[in-house]
Design brief:
The protein is of the alpha/beta class. It has helices at residues 36-52, 67-74, 88-96, 133-143, 157-169, 181-190, 200-209, 256-270, 273-281, 292-313; strands at residues 25-29, 56-60, 82-87, 109-125, 147-151, 173-177, 195-199, 212-217, 243-251. It folds into two domains: 25-117 and 243-313, D-Maltodextrin-Binding Protein, domain 2 (3-Layer(aba) Sandwich), CATH 3.40.190.150; 119-240, Periplasmic binding protein-like II (D-Maltodextrin-Binding Protein, domain 2, 3-Layer(aba) Sandwich), CATH 3.40.190. Helix 1 packs across helix 8 and helix 3 runs parallel beside helix 10. The longest helix is centred in the last third of the chain and has 22 residues, at 292-313.
Length: 319
């Protein structure tokens, strides 16, 4: 396999967004339709296609904790036609489990561009008699059983959030894995599980409709999209600060020129009025987002951060 290529940062101001291949480009999402990454990818792909003339589609490859999607891209053609839509979950999973096939590391993938960053939120079915984190703790203890919380895949950030929350609160929790956050949200609404740590964009509409109730956000401060919801710090859990970030990755072996073109196309699309508005309405943290070499450095920093935290807390999951 070719060596990792270090891609310089490219901004829309210094490079022109254009198609990078005459073939169909596939944005590969390692989850079922309906989750935050899927929603963001569809908006991004549409804007990239509109701005560059590049033919693009979104391809969902759910299951296997992301392994089938990673393998599909990592062993696919090295011409830039396959773009893996990665996220922080790939980093936390590698820290939590013993072996991750085709891990999102330099051996297999080249970071191209971050596409967004968002807080997570603890949500419950609105029919539960809880309106705050304290209420949840009191109710859970009265129930006298393990509370079930959904995770979009084993080892993702929300899985780690549940582990850390259990350690810090003393609440008995059991993780229930799904093939993406979409199915987990459906089961939470129907009452099949008790609670969920999920990204803010994936839950906003359900909170607004009254189907779900948000108890706390994992950002340092309250999020403008959910002004009435306190942070975990306000709720007495300052160590629950964490954000979910998303990014586009190419397999190693893709040329520097192609990787730069993909990064430029994505950066330009993210700066468009359409996506700027959509990202803000979804509760995303404000851009700009890093690209190229800066994104590669960011990913390396995240790998160390979550690896160190998992070692320090002794967190683990059953594979």
């Amino acid at each position: 396999m070719s060596a990792l290529v270090s891609v310089p940062f490219v901004s829309p101001a210094t490079a022109q967004a254009k198609k990078w291949t005459e073939s169909l480009a596939r944005f590969v999402v390692p989850a079922a339709p309906g989750g935050t990454l899927d929603q963001l990818t569809r908006l991004l792909a549409t804007e990239v296609g509109k701005l560059t003339g590049q033919r693009v589609i979104v391809e969902n490859r759910a299951g296997g904790a992301g392994a089938p999607a990673r393998q599909y891209v990592a062993t696919g053609p090295s011409d830039g036609t396959l773009i893996f839509m990665g996220q922080v979950h790939e980093i936390t999973r590698a820290a939590l489990v013993n072996s991750v096939p085709y891990a999102m590391t330099k051996e297999h993938f080249e970071p191209a561009s971050m596409i967004g960053e968002v807080p997570n939120v603890l949500v419950v079915n609105s029919k539960l008699p809880v309106k705050s984190v304290k209420d949840l703790l009191d109710w859970g203890k009265r129930e006298g059983r393990e509370l079930n919380y959904g995770v979009g895949s084993i080892g993702n950030l929300q899985n780690l959030a549940g582990i850390l929350f259990q350690q810090q609160s003393g609440l008995a929790l059991k993780s229930i894995p799904y093939k993406g956050s979409g199915p987990a949200i459906v089961d939470l609404i129907s009452g099949q599980i008790d609670l969920l740590f999920e990204t803010l964009p994936a839950t906003l509409a359900h909170v607004a409709s009254g189907k779900l109730r948000a108890l706390a956000v994992t950002s340092v401060k309250r999020n403008p999209a959910l002004k009435h919801v306190p942070s975990f710090t306000e709720s007495g859990f300052p160590k629950m600060q964490m954000t979910t970030w998303y990014g586009a990755f190419l397999r190693t072996g893709v040329s520097q020129a192609t990787t730069s073109q993909v990064a430029t196309a994505i950066s330009t699309a993210l700066a468009s009025p359409e996506l700027t508005t959509a990202w803000s309405q979804a509760g995303m943290l404000p851009p700009p987002y890093v690209s190229g070499e800066r994104f590669s450095e960011f990913v390396s920093t995240e790998e160390k951060r979550w690896s160190d935290l998992v070692k320090a807390t002794g967190a683990k999951v059953d594979e």
